[in-house]
Design a protein that fits this description.
alpha+beta, Umud Fragment, subunit A, four-stranded antiparallel sheet
């Protein structure tokens, strides 16, 4: 069961805002003219006055500035670990109305190498996080774990100093002059090799854990309308009941 937090937050903000407005423009005037006060309505007004500013503030920040997101799986390892809590910058790719997701202002477009949260096309209430590899109009080729974009091979080299506890071979990929680490768990195997044409208004996404990621090789191209924002910082790491990993707090997402 997926809970639409944006819808709940918007509804609560709207309801408390309406109650505050009714109190401001009707109930106070009625009381001033000698009308009686209803205990239930008075309690509702008191709660609405208290919660409306807080709800409005959270709604604005969550909708237009930053939204927290928890990494639910290992598909973006080693960049992001299961249990990472991250900030997603909502205004990187345009300002959108909450719930409706209608863009009201253009602020930028994704670039190759960006780590992006997006709504799943087949189930828009579910968010995924992957790395942008193909831009609109690109031709992306993924064969035997080697990535080629518009005929240009993407640089890939084994990591010279991988951590000793890595669960899979680590490589350094250079995408548009931006280096990031990836895992190739099964170098001899292939996972959905093919050539992919990226249509206008869409993006081709890959997980950094290349052999364990449900990405555009399986989902297809991601429409621009489904982008949520750019993942920028880790603010906490805690998986289950384990002690938080304080060393990951504040890390920039490369």
């Amino acid at each position: 069961m997926n809970i639409n937090l944006a819808l709940i937050l918007t509804l609560l903000t709207a309801v408390t805002g309406v109650v505050v407005a009714i109190d401001r423009f009707y109930l106070r005037k009625k009381q001033h003219e000698g009308g009686g006060s209803n205990r239930v309505m008075a309690t509702l007004v008191d709660y609405s006055r208290s919660f409306f500013p807080v709800l409005l503030f959270v709604l604005v920040i969550r909708s237009f500035v930053f939204e927290p997101f928890r990494i639910p799986s290992g598909s973006m390892m080693p960049t992001l670990l299961q249990g990472d809590f991250i900030f997603v910058k909502k205004f990187s790719y345009g300002l959108r109305l909450p719930v409706l997701e209608t863009k009201i202002m253009e602020t930028g477009q994704p670039e190759r190498g960006d780590v992006v949260v997006f709504r799943l096309p087949e189930e828009p209430t579910v968010n995924y996080i992957k790395r942008v590899v193909g831009l609109p109009g690109d031709t992306v080729e993924y064969v035997n774990h080697r990535l080629t974009v518009n005929g240009e091979p993407v640089a890939l080299a084994p990591d010279a100093n991988p951590p000793p506890d890595d669960p899979a071979p680590r490589f350094i990929e250079t995408l548009s002059d931006r280096e990031h680490a990836i895992f190739i768990a099964h170098p001899g195997n292939t996972v959905r090799d093919g050539v992919y044409e990226v249509p206008e208004g869409h993006y081709f996404m890959l997980g950094d854990n290349r052999d364990n990621s449900r990405d555009s090789r399986f989902l297809g191209m991601i429409p621009e309308t489904h982008l949520v924002g750019e993942a920028v910082r880790i603010w906490m790491h805690m998986d289950g009941l384990e002690i938080p990993d304080w060393g990951r707090i504040g890390m920039k997402i490369q």
